[in-house]
Specification:
109 residues; mainly alpha
C-alpha cells in the first residue's frame, strides 16, 4: 500500500504468488493430515471388525458346547428313565438285549 491508502498493483502482483504458494502448501499439509486420519480411522475400523468376528466365533463355540451338553444330558435322562423302567419291561417280556439296544451310546463330537 502506498501512503495515500491505495494499494499498489505491483506490490499485489508480487505478494500474490507467495500468498498462493503459502495457501497451497497449507492445503497440501491439511490434505496429508486428513489422509493420515483416514488411514488411522480405517485401521481402527478394521481392528473393531476383527474383534467382532472373534467374539462371534467364541459365541458360536460356546453355543455349540451348550448344545452338546444339552444332548448328553437328554441322553442320560433317557438312559436313567429306561433303566428305571427295566424291571417292569422285563416283567412284560421285553428282552434284556432289546433294552440294551435302546440305551444311548456315548455321544462323541
Amino acid at each position: 500500500m502506498n501512503s495515500g491508502g491505495c494499494s499498489n498493483p505491483q506490490e499485489e502482483a508480487q505478494s500474490s504468488p507467495n500468498s498462493f504458494l503459502s495457501e497451497l502448501t497449507e492445503l497440501s499439509q491439511l490434505k496429508i493430515e486428513q489422509m493420515n486420519h483416514d488411514t488411522r480411522f480405517k485401521d481402527k475400523q478394521s481392528e473393531i471388525e476383527e474383534r467382532k468376528l472373534n467374539l462371534l466365533e467364541k459365541e458360536s463355540d460356546i453355543r455349540m458346547e451348550a448344545l452338546q451338553v444339552e444332548a448328553e444330558h437328554k441322553g442320560m435322562q433317557f438312559k436313567a428313565d429306561l433303566l428305571h423302567q427295566r424291571p417292569q419291561l422285563l416283567k412284560e417280556g421285553v428282552l434284556q438285549e432289546d433294552i440294551d439296544n435302546l440305551l444311548p451310546k456315548r455321544l462323541t463330537y
